[in-house]
Amino acid sequence: MSLExxxxxxxxxxxxxxxxxxxxxxxxxxHQLVKDRNLKIIRLMIKNKADLNAKGSYGYTPLMVAAxxxxxxxxxxxxxxxxxxxxxxxxxxxxxWLAALNGHSDIVSFLxxxxxxxxxxxxxxxxxxxxLAADFGYLDTVKALLKAGADVNFVSPYGQTxxxxxxxxxxxxxxxxxKIVNAGADIHTAPxxxxxxxxTLQPLVxxxxxxxxxxxxxxxSKGASGVDSALRFAKLKANETLEKILTNKINLRNKxxxxxxxxxxxx
Length: 267
Known about the structure:
The protein contains 15 helices and no strands. The protein has helices at residues 7-21, 28-35, 39-47, 62-68, 72-80, 95-101, 105-113, 129-136, 139-148, 162-168, 174-182, 203-209, 213-221, 227-236, 240-266. The longest helix has 27 residues, at 240-266.
């Protein structure tokens, strides 16, 4: 439902707002106004004390709809009027989580400043907002979340971290990978999950198994652990390119160790 901004529609919607308050008008009307970025009438609904946390389709509140669709002005209006920043729908998705899903970094930053949970995990994908941003390659959103204090080493119930998604996700963006590693992501050990039945892998081994050559080269340049294990998996997968890269790394390491040992012997 879309409404034109004029005196008659304002008067008409003022009546409909009262119906909404009395349970006679679906919250979907409010949600559609948010989608349409109809700020003037949203203000009118706020003025008439409409339920800012009313849930419509998929259990979304108006703030969730605004965050998902990138409506930063709507987000600001709703939050300042008292909408709950961490209200979640049935799958645990919050406004900030939904903003991260679509890469709306400005909304992520705003909601973070308003105290939104940066490490919320949804019930389906079991991803935090930072994992989502890393998965899809949203560099600005990754930056916003890290700046706000998102846990770069948070481990999901599936045993994944933001680094995992940067290495094996949909985008495999090198810039995102660099940002996450430089923010302190653990490039040496396998993620430690509370689920002891999960078998997790070191980041370098994970990159090899998913044939992420760029990721492998970058992790090696940063001194990532697990080179020998990664080489075994490269051979197992018959990936000659990665096998050569890892073999060269091991040869250089061995040569360095040999020279250092010789140096100590001369002393």
